[in-house]
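Q: What does the predicted 3D structure of RND family efflux transporter, MFP subunit look like?
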Amino acid sequence: MLATAEETASAALLVPLSAVKITAQSHSVFVVEDGHTVSVSIETGNLIGDKIEILSGIDGYDAIVSSVRGIEEGDAVSILE
Protein backbone atom coordinates (compact mmCIF):
# COMPACT_ATOMS: atom_id res chain seq x y z
CA MET A 1 0.00 0.00 0.00
CA LEU A 2 1.29 3.47 -0.83
CA ALA A 3 1.02 6.65 1.15
CA THR A 4 1.11 10.19 -0.07
CA ALA A 5 3.07 12.94 1.57
CA GLU A 6 1.16 16.03 2.60
CA GLU A 7 2.73 19.48 2.69
CA THR A 8 2.35 21.48 5.90
CA ALA A 9 2.42 25.24 6.28
CA SER A 10 6.11 25.06 7.21
CA ALA A 11 6.87 23.29 3.89
CA ALA A 12 7.59 20.03 5.72
CA LEU A 13 5.90 16.84 4.55
CA LEU A 14 3.61 14.63 6.63
CA VAL A 15 3.58 10.86 6.20
CA PRO A 16 1.92 8.11 8.22
CA LEU A 17 4.07 7.06 11.17
CA SER A 18 3.67 3.47 9.94
CA ALA A 19 5.64 4.44 6.80
CA VAL A 20 8.78 5.31 8.81
CA LYS A 21 11.36 2.70 9.80
CA ILE A 22 12.93 3.82 13.06
CA THR A 23 16.21 2.37 14.33
CA ALA A 24 18.70 3.56 16.93
CA GLN A 25 20.88 4.97 14.15
CA SER A 26 18.39 6.40 11.65
CA HIS A 27 14.93 7.01 10.31
CA SER A 28 14.02 5.90 6.78
CA VAL A 29 11.15 5.26 4.41
CA PHE A 30 10.83 2.97 1.43
CA VAL A 31 10.22 4.70 -1.88
CA VAL A 32 9.18 2.88 -5.03
CA GLU A 33 11.61 3.04 -7.95
CA ASP A 34 11.20 0.88 -11.05
CA GLY A 35 8.83 -1.47 -9.22
CA HIS A 36 11.13 -2.13 -6.25
CA THR A 37 11.54 -0.67 -2.78
CA VAL A 38 14.52 1.55 -2.05
CA SER A 39 15.35 2.67 1.49
CA VAL A 40 15.85 6.42 1.82
CA SER A 41 17.23 8.07 4.97
CA ILE A 42 15.09 10.93 6.23
CA GLU A 43 15.19 13.64 8.86
CA THR A 44 12.02 13.74 10.94
CA GLY A 45 10.34 16.54 12.84
CA ASN A 46 7.21 16.72 14.96
CA LEU A 47 4.71 13.94 15.49
CA ILE A 48 1.23 15.20 14.56
CA GLY A 49 -1.44 12.66 15.45
CA ASP A 50 -0.66 9.48 13.52
CA LYS A 51 1.64 11.32 11.09
CA ILE A 52 5.21 12.57 11.30
CA GLU A 53 6.91 15.52 9.65
CA ILE A 54 9.64 14.75 7.13
CA LEU A 55 12.11 17.63 7.05
CA SER A 56 14.47 16.20 4.43
CA GLY A 57 15.21 13.10 2.38
CA ILE A 58 12.07 12.86 0.22
CA ASP A 59 9.73 15.25 -1.52
CA GLY A 60 6.02 15.29 -2.25
CA TYR A 61 6.55 13.52 -5.58
CA ASP A 62 8.04 10.33 -4.10
CA ALA A 63 5.80 7.26 -3.88
CA ILE A 64 6.39 5.77 -0.44
CA VAL A 65 5.29 2.47 1.06
CA SER A 66 2.62 3.19 3.69
CA SER A 67 3.76 0.51 6.15
CA VAL A 68 7.33 -0.71 6.60
CA ARG A 69 6.21 -3.84 8.44
CA GLY A 70 7.61 -6.87 6.60
CA ILE A 71 9.18 -4.75 3.84
CA GLU A 72 12.84 -5.11 2.87
CA GLU A 73 15.12 -3.21 0.48
CA GLY A 74 14.61 -4.42 -3.09
CA ASP A 75 11.17 -6.01 -2.60
CA ALA A 76 9.10 -6.06 -5.78
CA VAL A 77 5.99 -3.90 -5.47
CA SER A 78 3.30 -2.54 -7.74
CA ILE A 79 1.42 0.71 -7.35
CA LEU A 80 -2.34 0.35 -7.02
CA GLU A 81 -4.42 3.36 -7.93
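A (community wiki): The C-alpha coordinates above were generated from the sequence. The chain has a mean pLDDT of 89. The longest strand covers residues 36-48.
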